[in-house]
Amino acid sequence: MDFNAIRNLISRYCTGEENWVDSRTVYIGHREPPPGTEAYIPQRFPDNRIVSSKYTFWNFVPKNLFEQFRRIANFYFLIIFLVQLIIDTPTSPITSGLPLFFVITVTAIKQGYEDWLRHKADNAVNQCPVHIIQHGKVVRKQSHKLRVGDIVLVKEDETFPCDLILLSTSRDDGTCFVTTASLDGESSHKTYYAVQDTKSFNTEQELDTLRATIECEQPQPDLYKFVGRINIYQERDEPIARPLGSENVLLRGATLKNTEYVYAVAIYTGMETKMALNYQSKSQKRSAVEKSMNAFLIVYLCILLSKALINTVLKYVWQANPNRDEPWYNEKTESERQRHVLIRAFTDFLAFMVLFNYIIPVSMYVTVEMQKFLGSYFITWDEEMFDDEIGEGALVNTSDLNEELGQVEYIFTDKTGTLTENNMEFIECCVDGHVYVPHAICNGQILPGALGIDMIDSSPGPDGKEHEELFFRALCLCHTVQVKEEETVDGIKRGIHQGKGTSFYISSSPDEVALVEGMKRLGFTYLRLKDNHMEILNREDEIERFELLEVLNFDSVRRRMSVIVRSGTGELYLFCKGADSSIFPRVISGKVEQVRARVEHNAVEGLRTLCVAYKLLTFEEYQDICQLLETAKLALQERDKKLAEAYDAIERDFILLGATAVEDRLQDKAADTIESLHKAGMKVWVLTGDKMETAAATCYASKLFRRSTQILELTTKRTEEQNLHDVLFDLSRTVLRQHGSLTRDTFSGLSNEFQDYGLIIDGATLTAVMKPDQDGSTGNYKEIFLEICRNCSAVLCCRMAPLQKAQIVKLIKFSKEHPITLAIGDGANDVSMILEAHVGIGIMGKEGRQAARNSDYAIPKFKHLKKMLLVHGHYYYIRIAELVQYFFYKNVCFIFPQFLYQFFCGFSQQPLYDTAYLTLYNISFTSLPILLYSLIEQHINMDILKRDPSLYRDIAKNSLLRWRIFIYWTFLGVFDAVVFFFGAYFLFDNTTFTSNGQLMTTNTQMMFGNWTFGTLVFTVLVFTVTLKLALDTHYWTWINHFVIWGSLLFYVVFSLLWGGIIWPFLNYQRMYYVFMQMLSSGPAWLCIILLITVSLLPDVVKKVMCRALWPTTTERIQNADKLYQGHLSEFTPLSSLHASHHKAADAHHLNPRRSEHPSKKLMYTHWGGGADYCTFSSSFGHLGLHSAYSWGGHETSV
Fold it and tell me: What class of enzyme is it (predicted)?
């Protein structure tokens, strides 16, 4: 299969090219068209089954084994095991086979269990009931049995089971309202339209008489594009053809709202639905630590091969003398003499490989698997990451990536439902310079609770009152809000009664709902749209009726919307609201400067602002407008362009009324979390399907963009004015002018010396940047775009399709620095980027559980990301880094004496250690202490890690597993091994024969044989490597003491029992009484103590000198924490403990919060509850005392 061709096709669909691809014909209700109209050719389509699992019952064993043996270590141990089975080797095959079997089995069980959970989730989706129309009756089926062509009945609040074409609805106008939160992250209501000729088919019996076919394109992943037509057959031979667009398509995963029921026909099912096509295929994620382990493993494999080769060559050099080749006590058999020398040499090479193979630690992989599996429970058990609102805590779906949480460099986050609660709140409005705050100032009157407010000229005159009421009416009329007449909340029906009471508004824009609700709080209530008349309840409880004549819908290019209405007195009004940049140039009168000043003030505060204007129309002007709009709407060619020209001609010569300010409420502590992530050296990108203005306001509110940030735009609007090439090069020159060739990664991102840049890009422009040239390459644009992004402290990507989000993540992931990426989101539209990133985190939010189910980790709220990365990620990384380095170190210590021993035994492959010691060294004697260390070590207190995010930089870019540190550990192991071997060797240098043929040392009077020597070396080895770990431990508990000293005690007890009893099942008794006899000699004790001290001394001296002369930030804080006896005060200035190169970064003046001046306005400061916590900024050592208090409302700087 040509995957490149498929990829090109998909990318072509996503670019929006109007290419008609192979079409499909769908027969509605599986009914054939009338005879003689067209040939009936039924096509085969997949069923409606969704599959997110990786394995099946039949392929689990072969597929899982294949994946596991792709790991270098597993494949190596399989080869060693087979060699031990085939040839005569110094050690038993069991020593390699059992650990390998254990590793493979444990990993298979773990991965099998995780996939079983995915199967379980898939079954829950595939078996949910759906209602299908068959032969004029409603039939209930399981979702996976749905077929293309089935007519489906969907009721209110149900989710669409597949992609459908809307045929009819319970509403007379053939419309329905849908939320697409799980697809594009927007929980607002969108309007979809039934086919005009089928909207009257409202019963099952009527639908049974419908004969029609749908011709449409084959499935493609673009959520916002659909091309098709419906052919309806009636009495006449010629069918009626009607076009179908994206406004007729109900997508799988969306939910029906405010519509009693709809009938629709299935066109795409199962894995062909747009939602499924936007899923990335699951792939096995590998952490950076695992890649480092594999690289180190290759180095040790080369060392192993070179050792075996050297020993094989030296063996044959040694045996060149006939007396050495075949001594009198070891004569060869005839068959051995006749074997070819190359075969003998190869066999000896394999035997040496087996003898030295312990340098590759198979038990390291077992320990790493156990550490990851057990360590993941610390996230699950963390009470601070438990959310009372949903009653759930964090979940770990994949434990393979724990340590990757400590290496994140780029964070890609969704906006709606991730950073924000998607809950708009009306804050204030400004009419002709007079500010109105709900429940505070209304028509110049100070209402209760408004004391301390800075009142801005709170006495409007008679003209002001007229403008004020016109402004309120404009906001009650200029919108697309729908009123829900009745809503059941907790079993209680609530709604509008006699035009009063609680009203429930729904709209495609949550801003509009907030504005209408804000007007209601200020005395003007929008009641309903009935018979094309909009009804308003004014302050005098009088109902005003306005006839709705025209709606000029909002679009992202114009950035405004308008309505034309006729009042009860016959006056014609054109009301317009939109972004300040699109309203102010079209205004000819009004208090522009006062309103502009207020708009700029609110924008700086991170509020979403809109301006409102109007003009009175004469009847002749209205007729001209109707003619202009009618001509544009009927155009078949370039309809959008003609409509835009018409809107531009109509929306002119306004009188400015005022402006509004709405807040998209951020999630709790979202701004604090982003600020901490920035300080930790991570770059945060927001990828959203939302509008640019909305997303930008959120970025300011969440501190992603700061007051000093210079915003660079790479949007459709700009590329229409200037070609893409010029825009890119202009932006590139702008960001590189100051930074030169240095990228933003060099700096903190909070430094005052460099201009902060923020980039905004939209989906259409991104498509153009990524679009391949004719020769198949993406040209130079991608590299220039990446260069611009690297020099920006934050990037906002708006109007992104789900696959585009994944493309952005992939672009950064495979850039030349290969940074570690993390994606976080809460909807099905975020699944693609979650699967693409190195680490995917799902938020268990309001938009379904698709993101949480497909992620590696799931957390209840965005604020929990701070602890997950800065604390858990930090700990996981330093623990596993020590585990990996320590395992290689202790195995070098273990095997290098065996290598040296071959020089003293004629390269005869004689083991230095007893078989029991060879087998149990990694399994029992030294495995438990390092496993426990890797689970509970805390090199720095948890509270300090949370308070000082910059400590995260110390472990960035895999700093603890770099080659320099790896080589240091390896040389330390070689040094210790040399000390063990030659220390013991020179101690027993003077030897004499005893009467029974044993060697006895003249200076110790101790029996000295092969096994005594090996046991002495092994004893020093076990004690040294265990004490080395004890010296590296910072966090001591009773468990550490029990395991470390218990392991040493176990070794001694085991050795006493192993050598103190004649075991009947052994065919040799070579270790009998060896250990006891060794310990009976005083000099042996002295030797053990002396060699352990000499081995540990260099590492201790090196650490003491480095801490004294060149301490890292981490070591400074460790020293300070010891000084305060483990209770480093919150008031200790952490910045004074930082290395000097951090000072410039930390000295940056942080932005004041929105409520910096408590007396400024009531709406900005919600005082309530006592102080939650008190912390000091890590930089107050340079800035003076600066504390941040968190109150019951918004965070407030004092």
Answer: translocase
